[in-house]
Amino acid sequence: MVLEMLFDWEQRVAHMGMRDRMVSIKDVAALAGVSDRTVSRVVNGEGLIRPKTKKKVQKAIETLGYVPNQAARLMRTSRSNVLGLITDVVSTTPFSTDIVRGIQDALDGTSYTLLTVNTSADPAKEQRAWQVFREHGIGGVFYVTMFHRHVPRDTEFPSTPTVLVNCSDPEQAIPSIVPDDYQGGLDAVRHLVERGHRKIAYVVLNELLLAADLRGRAFFDALATAGIEVRKEWVVPGRVGAIFADKLVAFENARRILNNPDRPTAIVCGNDEIALQVYCAATDLGLRVPDDVSIIGFDDFQVITTGIQPPLTTMALPYRDMGALAVRMLLDIIAGHPQKKKHVEYRCELVLRNSVSSPRLPGARSANST
Amino acid sequence: MVLEMLFDWEQRVAHMGMRDRMVSIKDVAALAGVSDRTVSRVVNGEGLIRPKTKKKVQKAIETLGYVPNQAARLMRTSRSNVLGLITDVVSTTPFSTDIVRGIQDALDGTSYTLLTVNTSADPAKEQRAWQVFREHGIGGVFYVTMFHRHVPRDTEFPSTPTVLVNCSDPEQAIPSIVPDDYQGGLDAVRHLVERGHRKIAYVVLNELLLAADLRGRAFFDALATAGIEVRKEWVVPGRVGAIFADKLVAFENARRILNNPDRPTAIVCGNDEIALQVYCAATDLGLRVPDDVSIIGFDDFQVITTGIQPPLTTMALPYRDMGALAVRMLLDIIAGHPQKKKHVEYRCELVLRNSVSSPRLPGARSANST
DNA sequence: TTGAAAGCGCTAACAT
DNA sequence: ATGTTAGCGCTTTCAA
């Protein structure tokens, strides 16, 4: 039976390279004994239909298994039910996929579907993507980047409603949604300070990233506000190198800082990947988390944060919500509703787990037995 | 300037809910002084065109910025340049996203784009997805699952060319591509045996997963072949509970096994997440990897495998290649080429890193200083 | 090598 | 409350 189905494809495909003629609105009309226009009205829920007629038509639709032809509809109305999604994923870093999921989920109740293109951060591919979108008469585009960043100043966005997610243009003329990395960084450090830490180190994200800049400034500002002096030797890089080809060096650097009687009681990590390495560095030295060192991450990348023991306290990036908001914004724009805010910075929320505690009282020595 | 662009959208959208009339083949024809049919020939590279005519047309296309209207083309030909992608992602597990990337990358040189739908493993949504695909006249679909599994026996696949990726139907009537978890499991254990291990534990994947079954059988078979007796108390669950709501228990279980003078010298982990917990368990006990325990993972989930110290030796799931193969198969089917193989099991390759060494000589005591 | 005519399935605009 | 007509942009078919 299923085998026949397969055979079917091969037949159809071999013979003519096309599927059976679709059952059209006319077929439905004929069966229901009404005009095609009436069927169209029913399909699009236009009202001004006698309930009885409606029933008849719906039954005909049912028995014929009619589905509307979006291509025809688009041709007539120039209103597509497809939105474009551009991502710039590269390599195996699975970050920010939750943005896409947030978008997909939010689109779920609507009539919209997503045409997705991945540019691998290649400008040529990106241009091609926009062309594909034009070819398909797409009505709006989500432009999603893997890392929080500015879009290059000379990027030309076609005149299709577009929402930037996880990135923004320097002029902030294109609607955009980004995480508030600065606030997140501030709150992360504050959390440590509130728990009594004053000897705080910082293992920095790749400094080429905008997030690194934002979170880094937050670190310095938060310490300044708390009246804590920054120990320069305790601010070390966690990743170095070109952005899609960088190298994790958090382990070595954290190990060096920690391997010293005068060591920090808490470490702020540029993100959860770095936090993982800092963990490894701590345990490599026989130090316990959080008893000997508190560690706080950033991103809430759950494979890491809920996978390690003890689970990692971290600053969550509001990816799903950003995706949901992007959908609301884009649909609003398409519907012609003016936007109050063109650029929104979405709040990061602290996720409390078990990698942060109060620092041990000065003088007490680390216990390192099971 | 960019602001004007925005204003533009709002104008257009508010006034009529549609974009400017597309520049059509006729406009090009008029400018080039030829018939529309001729333009069509050029656009589709049909040959039988005088080079001079071709030039003229191409120039007109250029100056007008013409892009073909896929909707119109589809209507006429019933051959869509869009393929469907169904995924069943749920929760925050980022597994198997590389399959999707493999597909996207392989599609890159072609004229095809992807319409993606995420079902969240909800049958109603899945059915809706197929309808959406029909509405868009989609020519083929990739059905990608997050976990290697069988598709439920009663799943009805519409008569659209479909390739199952990371799953298969029990009858293997639908073309499908899955990883060879059994071979992978076998090779993983063999690697340990070759390094001299005979005291080998196994922290099992959620036993509801097909991969767990396959990898599990491989574990027992490999030990049997090597003439090693299985220690039942060293085979423990790493995850328990319903599939999309399971709980990691690898840490506790690994810790219990390891916290014993008579402990395994190597641990096979159901996947890399579990391996991460086993690491934590080992270091929690002051044990060193790989000196005191060797650990081998499964999946090559790089955030983990290259993030922890020492980096994790693991059995890689050939996700990208599976995606690429899926593209080849689907395009072949659409083109009417018969398939030699309907069901392929893709080989897993061992990735050597630093979490496996030979077991310490019996009698030598563990050193646990820095 | 090129062109003319027809029609894919749908809905806007206008009847009735 | 329902029907008629026309045409969106393209390619197929046939003719020149």
TrEMBL record, chains A, B:
The keyword Repressor applies. Coiled coil: none annotated. Residues 23-77 form the HTH lacI-type domain. Keywords: DNA-binding, Plasmid, Repressor, Transcription, Transcription regulation. Signal peptide: none annotated. This is LacI family transcriptional regulator protein. It comes from Rhizobium phaseoli.
